[in-house]
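Per-record layout

source: Capsicum annuum
name: Hypersensitive-induced response protein 4
length: 344
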Amino acid sequence: MHLYTACMWHKMIFFFFFFWWLKGKGCYIFSSICLCFGILNSCLLFWNCWETETMGNLFCCVQVDQSTVAIKERFGKFDDVLEPGCHFLPWCIGSQIAGYLTLRLQQLDVRCETKTKDNVFVTVVASIQYRALSDKATDAFYKLSNTRSQIQAYVFDVIRASVPKINLDDVFEQKNQIAKAVENELEKAMSAYGYEIVQTLIVDIEPDEHVKRAMNEINAAARLRVAANEKAEAEKIVQIKRAEGDAEAKYLAGLGVARQRQAIVDGLRDSVLGFSVNVPGTTAKDVLDMVLITQYFDTMKEIGASSKSSAVFIPHGPGAVGDIAGQIRQGLLQGAAVEQQNLL
């Protein structure tokens, strides 16, 4: 760009020189043409100087933007730090701008691969937020040639010295301690160069893909084991409750059967007593035979009344009732005899 500007200056001087020379020779047409070219070249030169911010240099002025400082030198030696605004820069006596230094907050993301204590390789991503100090602008501009490489080297050193002392599971829990260690080391190192470390963050910890898959499988297996235990406990509770319900139902059913049979016995006793009183000369055997025959015919009536009943038939007939009655009496007599022998 500076070569282009110099050429423009030379062409402008050339056109104006020929304008005066041709005008002195009386060649007004050619001199007018040279004047037009000279004016056009002057316009292009001033426009180029305006676009490349060299217009101010032509008038010994320089502009410094906000959140930026300029380093002023005189004949190659540091002279002053220019704050934001417009400043007088007499280039004719050797003053010039050596460079600009931004005071804005900057961020550098550093990816560092290292090994944990349990021999697992991980990639740690650290985010460093830093800025130059205005009162130490000379140190920040002259002492470091590549600030980002310097910060990256310190981050590598601290992370590769801290992470190998920790197991993989603990790295995720202690990332704040790692970030604090990196920040302290950078603060001590970079303050001498005019930079302030605002904050250091460990934004990501990435183990190897196979390690991540294995960790996920371990977690899934542990959760499945817990789920299986919970399911077994639930089934155990259901079976216990079902057994308790069955036991209670059987107990209540037994009470109902016992009460039913007690009611039958009471009814039979009352029937026998009443029949013996109302019909003289009858015995308990006659009454019991008549009751059994009545129940027999009632049962046959119920079986015949249902078209879809399932029944098991045994030899029956009016004489079968007498056989059943004899079996009942025989059982009662044998039971009485055994009880009498036990008493003796």
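summary: The CA atoms of residues 61 and 88 lie 5 Å apart. The chain is about 60% helix and 20% strand.
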